[in-house]
Amino acid sequence: MKKELFSRENHKEDTIIKIGNEEIIGNNKIMMIAGPCSVESEEQIIEIAKRVKESGANFLRGGAFKPRTSPYDFQGLKEEGLKLLTKAKEETGLKIVSEIVSIEDIELFDKYVDVIQIGARNMQNFDLLKKVSKLNKPIILKRGLCATIKEWLMAAEYILNEGNPNVILCERGIRTYETATRNTLDLSSIPVIKKLSHLPIIVDPSHAGGQKYLIEPLSKAAIAIGCDGLIIEVHNHPEKALSDGEQSLTPTMYNDLCQNIKPLINIMNKKI
Amino acid sequence: MKKELFSRENHKEDTIIKIGNEEIIGNNKIMMIAGPCSVESEEQIIEIAKRVKESGANFLRGGAFKPRTSPYDFQGLKEEGLKLLTKAKEETGLKIVSEIVSIEDIELFDKYVDVIQIGARNMQNFDLLKKVSKLNKPIILKRGLCATIKEWLMAAEYILNEGNPNVILCERGIRTYETATRNTLDLSSIPVIKKLSHLPIIVDPSHAGGQKYLIEPLSKAAIAIGCDGLIIEVHNHPEKALSDGEQSLTPTMYNDLCQNIKPLINIMNKKI
Amino acid sequence: MKKELFSRENHKEDTIIKIGNEEIIGNNKIMMIAGPCSVESEEQIIEIAKRVKESGANFLRGGAFKPRTSPYDFQGLKEEGLKLLTKAKEETGLKIVSEIVSIEDIELFDKYVDVIQIGARNMQNFDLLKKVSKLNKPIILKRGLCATIKEWLMAAEYILNEGNPNVILCERGIRTYETATRNTLDLSSIPVIKKLSHLPIIVDPSHAGGQKYLIEPLSKAAIAIGCDGLIIEVHNHPEKALSDGEQSLTPTMYNDLCQNIKPLINIMNKKI
Amino acid sequence: MKKELFSRENHKEDTIIKIGNEEIIGNNKIMMIAGPCSVESEEQIIEIAKRVKESGANFLRGGAFKPRTSPYDFQGLKEEGLKLLTKAKEETGLKIVSEIVSIEDIELFDKYVDVIQIGARNMQNFDLLKKVSKLNKPIILKRGLCATIKEWLMAAEYILNEGNPNVILCERGIRTYETATRNTLDLSSIPVIKKLSHLPIIVDPSHAGGQKYLIEPLSKAAIAIGCDGLIIEVHNHPEKALSDGEQSLTPTMYNDLCQNIKPLINIMNKKI
C-alpha cells in the first residue's frame, strides 16, 4: 500500500522548515509566534510587534481576514491589514503569519505573508489547501475543532501531495462537553503526531484555553510534551480588542511567559 | 439588538421555498431527495434516478465534486458528473441536488444544478457561503460535524444576509464518542430549529447512521419529530459503490422505506 | 466464545417482562411511566398519580432517594417518599417505579417498589447492579451519560448473569458539546439495541431534552423509531418543583402528549 | 450564598495532606504512585513494589477489587489482594493505594489500605463517597469519564461535607471522539482546579493515554502544568498482565521516566 507522505515510515528524520536559508522550525528550533487576533491599526500592530520581539518572539501573527461565527462581527481589515503587518515587519524584522480564508486572496498572501495559516474551520477545505500549497510557503495547518488526528494528517497530505513539504501542524484544542475551558487542548496529539509523522507541530494555548490565566501553564505543558512552537495571542489593550480580548495576554504577561518557559526549553534541549 | 434574519421572531411563518412556481419545501411539503453518494456513470445515475422516482423521490442527489478525507480517494467525475446528472434529469424530470466545494465551480453549478448543497466540512467556509448565495438558488446547508445549533444558524445567516432567503438546513449527525453509529443523529435539533427559526430542515439518515439497517428507523423518527424532508443515499450496486456503499440502500430498500413512512407523513399532515 | 446473555444471537425473540401474570413490556406492549422527579408530599404525588392515570400512564415514577450533583440540593424524602408512592398506588392502581442509590436500601425497595430504576450515574456501579438483581424485580437500567452502547449492554449483563432476566434499558441522552439541549438523545441506540439484543428499551425524553417543549416531539420520534415505552416527568406545579421543574410537563400537557402519540403507537402496531 | 468547602475562596492555602506526621502531598510535595492495574500474585506485587521503590515511588498501587466493563473479566483477588499489598508494604515500606467499589468492603479498606481510591465509574456514587469519608483516610477521587470540572468538585464536596478534608483529585482523561488515545487527558483541568480549589490534584497518564509510549510525555506535561503527583501503571510482565497490559510500563521504563522528569520537578520547585 502507498504510504502517505506525512508518514514517519517514509521519512524517518523530523522535517526542518526553512525560509531562505534560515531554519524556522524543526531540528530543535522552537517557533515563537505572537500577536493580536486581529490587526486593528498601525499603532496597535507596531507596538505589539516591538514588544513581543523584545520578549523573544520570532514571528508576528495578526488576522487580516477573519472567519467569524456571525456575519455581523468584525471581519478584519483585509488587504489593509496585510499592509500594516508588512509595516510592522519592516519596523521589527519579525516574519509574518496570517490566516487565509479564500482562494481569491492567494496573490495578496504571496506578496505580504511569510507563513500562511489555515484555520480550524478550513482544515478540510481541500480546495483552499490545494491552491495555497502552490505558493510553496510554509503553511500552518490548524486542527479542525473535531478532527481526528488521522483526518488532520490526511488534510496535511493534501498539501504535501501538491508538492509543498512545508507543513506545520497546530494543535488548538478540540470540542468536548467541558465548558470550563473554551476547548480542550489535546496535548496527547503531540506525541501521537511525533510517532506517526515527521512534520513539526506547534500549540495554540490561547484558543484552546480561552482565558488569560491558562496560557502560561498550557504553554509549559506544551513545551514539556515536545511541541516545536507556540502561537500566542498578545494585545496591547486586551480589554479593547475587537476580537478574543479575554484570551489575549498583555505584552508584559507575554514577556513573563517567555522568561518562565526558557528553563523548560533548555531541559528539552531546544532553542528559540 | 439586531435580530438575525433566520430568527422566527422576525418571520413568524415557516419559510416556503419554490423553484419557479413550484413549492419544493415548507407548507407541509416533504422534500424527498435520493441518489448515490457519487455519480459514477451514465448507466448508474439514470437507473438509480428512474428507480427512486418510481418510489416517490422528487429530487436526485449525486456527488460530482467529492470532498474526501484522503487525497487518494475518488474525488468525483467533476463537470462530467454534473452533465450526467442533467441527463438523468432529462430522462426523469427529477430536479438535481449536488454539492459544491469551490467558488471556481459556481458557474457550473449555476448551469447544471437546481439545489446546491454545502457539505458539513464547509459549513463555516464563509467565502463559499457568500459567493454561492449570489446564485439565488435554494441551498442545503449541512450541519458541521461538531457545530452547535447556534453556529449552524449563524452560518445560514451568512447566506440570508447576502439576500438569498432559500436556505434548507440539513441535520446529518454530530460527532460523539459513540462508535456503534458513524455519527450521532441529533434529532432534537429539529424541534430546536423549529422554535428558533422559520427555515425548513431536512435529515440525512445515511451519513448519520452509516449502516443500511439504520436508515429506515431513523427516517421514521425524523418524520415523526417534524422534519421537512429526507436525503437518502441509494445505489443500484451498493457493494460496488466508489464511496459510502455500506450506508447506501438498494432501490428496492428505498421503495420499501417510502412505503413505510407514508402513514407517518399522513399523521403529521404532510405530503411528498 | 461465550455469547452474552443480552445477545439476540442467544435469544431470538424479544424479551417480554411480566409482573405476576401481567405483561408490562415487550410483545408490542408500550410501558408508559409518568410522575414527578421527586416525591414531595402526599397531596402532590396523589394528584399527579390520578391525573397521569387518566391520561393513560400505567406506571407512576417518583424519586425518593435522589442522587444530586451537589450535597446541598434536596436529596429526597427517602423511606417516607416510598410510603407516599405506596399510598398513590393504593389510590390509583398504578405500579411504582423508583430509583435506588444504595445497597442498604434494598429491603425497602423490595417492600415498596414494583420496578427498580438504576440511574445513569450508577450504570457501572456493579456492586449495586449485582445486589439489586437478587430481588428478581424488573430493573430499568439507564444509559450512563457517556456510556457506549456496548458498555451499557455489558452493564445489563451484570444483572442477567445474576439470574435476573427482567432488564429494561432506558435511553436518556448522552453528553455531547451541544448546549441547546440538556443532553443529546441518541435515538439511534434503539435500532442498534434491537439488532444486538432481545431486551426491551424505553426512552426518557425529559432528561434528554431538559425543556418542556422538546418532550412531545422527542416522544413521537422515540415511538416511531421503535421504543417500548416512555418515562416522562410530570408535575402538578412545575414552577415549584424541588427538582427538574423546567423539564416537567403539567398533567394537561401530559394528557395532550398521550393523545398525540396514540396514532403513532397504532401505526407501529403497538398498544399501551 | 454558602461557599463550597472545596473553594479556594474559603481556604486560600493549598491543602497539605498528611499520614501521621508525614506530608504526602501538597506544599510542593509530589506523590509518586506506581504499581500494577491488578494485584495478581505475591511474587508479582513484591517484585514490582521493590522496583518502583528503587526508582523513587513513594506509594504502591494495586487493584484488588476491579470494576470491569464485562462481568466475565477478571474481577480482582479481593481480600487476598489486599493482604498481598500489605506484604509488599512490609517488604518495602511503600504505602498502599487501592480502589474501593462497595460499601461492604469498608472495614477491609480501613484495615489494609493507606489511601483509598474512588474510580471514575463511581465518581458520583454518592453513597460510597459518603461512607468512605468516615474512615478519615486520604481519598483519591478520580474524575468521571465525562464529568465536568464542576461536577467533579461537587463530588469532592460530598466527601469534604462529611468532615474528611483529605481529598486528592485525579485527572485521568475524559471521553471524546478521538480514538488515537484511550481517552483525552484534559491537562487544562489542573490550572482550572488550582484556581477554583485548594485541593491537590494528581494525573493518571496510563489510563488517559492507554499506550506505553504516551506515558512519559504525558507525565512531563503533567508536571510542567503543575500537578501534585502521578499515578502510573507498572507491571513486571506487561504482556502477561491480567488487565491493562498495553498501558503498563516495565519497571525499567518507569525508572527512566522517574529520571527524566526529575529536572522538571526541580524547575517547578517541587520534590518527590
Features:
homotetramer; 272 residues; alpha/beta; TIM Barrel; two-stranded antiparallel ribbon; 9 helices
Quick gist of this model?
The structure is a homotetramer of 272-residue chains. In chain A, 36% of the residues lie in helices and 15% in strands. Chain A is an alpha/beta fold and 272 residues long.
- Count of DSSP helices of chain A? 9
Q: What is the averaged pLDDT score of chain A?
A: 96
Strand content of chain A: 15-25%
Parts with pLDDT < 50 across at least 5 consecutive residues of chain A: none
Oligomer: homotetramer
Q: In terms of topology, how is this protein built?
A:
The structure is a homotetramer of 272-residue chains.
Chain A: E1 17-19, E2 22-25, E3 31-35, H1 42-55, E4 59-61, H2 79-92, E5 95-99, H3 106-112, E6 115-118, H4 126-133, E7 139-142, H5 149-160, E8 167-171, H6 189-196, E9 201-203, H7 205-209, H8 212-225, E10 229-233, H9 251-267
Parallel strand pairs in A: 3-4, 3-10, 4-5, 5-6, 6-7, 7-8, 8-9
Antiparallel strand pairs in A: 1-2
Helix pairs in contact in A: 1-2, 1-9, 4-5, 8-9
